Records
---
Amino acid sequence: MSDSNKQLHGNIIALVGAVILSLGLFLPWVTLGKLAVDAFIKTPDHAYLLLALAGLSVLLSIWGILKKSDFGLVYILIALIIGVLQYLVYYRLTEHLESNKVFGRVGQIGPGFWVTCAGAFFLLIAALSMVQLKRKK
């Protein structure tokens, strides 16, 4: 496989990761039985920053696909920022959920949080493949 094909595949993986990341923001981040709360209600500041980073990743990956550009280091930076934000949100959510019970039940972290983490993981995989590609040259 040529370098330009590997670069194209890296940008496609980054695009998939950014879309998954964006979708995770709109899924439930906290669940309690049939009740669900998304990221924009529970952690609005983090959610808007994550949405901005996901949007930037989508734009960069589309630009990379069309112009055959490599944004591996930028993707790594974005994935690291998202990772730190997700860690902070996870800590805050678990702390909040453990201390608050509703009708004797404790809420759980919902699928939206984990889908967002999966999107960031895809972004990191794409970035590492692109950086590794640069190193081999």
---
Amino acid sequence: MAIDRAPWNALVDDDGSNLVGSVWNKAAIKTVLLDPIDGITWQSVAFSAANFVANAGAWTVAAGHVSEQKYIITGKAVDVLIVINGASVTGAPTNLAVTGWPFTMATNAAAMGLCSGAVGGWGPVLAGGNGSGINFNRLDFAGFPVASGTFALFLTARYRLA
């Protein structure tokens, strides 16, 4: 959400005499600056199991596994937060994707996230923004280990909007 700059552009600087220039008061500051800034809030993405995709095998994510899937747009960037715990992975996929975002990210923008299978503990993953999805790959591009109800994923990242 962009802040309306018309009131700002209409302001006149004082010349130091304290006789000219725009007078600001608390109501003007609240209405013109604070309210629009306060209006920038995290937006949740409605859950859909179809938005969790594996390139091989399956990535099974239920609504109860997703505690956070939200975003906030500021200017030409988007911050995303994804927290998944208790999902399942089969078939050793090398790419997992979270799709269904209501915006388009610049392709090949990358960030780092964390994931955990049952045995391997937490480890870093590449999280590349690509259109309306975020693709996750292990750093060695090997398959994600099989995890039955124990797969977790955490990402907080900023991507450039297309």
---
Amino acid sequence: MPSAIDRLRIEADQLKARLANLTVLIERYEQLEREAERLVGQEREQTPSAVAPANVADRAKPVDAPPKQRLPASAATPFADYEAALRDILLAAEKPMRRKPLYIALTERGITLPGADGIGAFTTRLYRAEWIVNLQGWGYWLADRPFEPAAYAPPGSSLEGPESQPEEKKPSELDLSKFE
């Protein structure tokens, strides 16, 4: 019979595997979401007088997106530099920023992320960053910085009452037993 420690290690391994599966699912849904946004954007751009591209492949490419190239991890910006740039951008912002403008601000500073899907890697990093919160309906904001219009106060700050937004749960705090 396995000891309590062995059972906990087995459970931890199972949770890690489940979390990896959930991460893959999230990335797939985000990819579908980006594709839907791209398609909706194309419909808005086309007017009855617009000339359709001669090549079907030309219609599939977003107008503002450069061709995707897989960037090796060694060519990506070091993580500490990425975090410093992200913190500087959010400190300079007067209000929370949505994901795409935040990503664009990073790339304008020369920040590069590994992989073929930079915004996908960026989304994953945003989700995992404990020092950033996603204020529902507003965008991403520094977790230690209050934002009164959204009634957000950092955990443990003086703003109290039902208006203060609870901290978003991280994967380690979620009950994954319902997914087994």
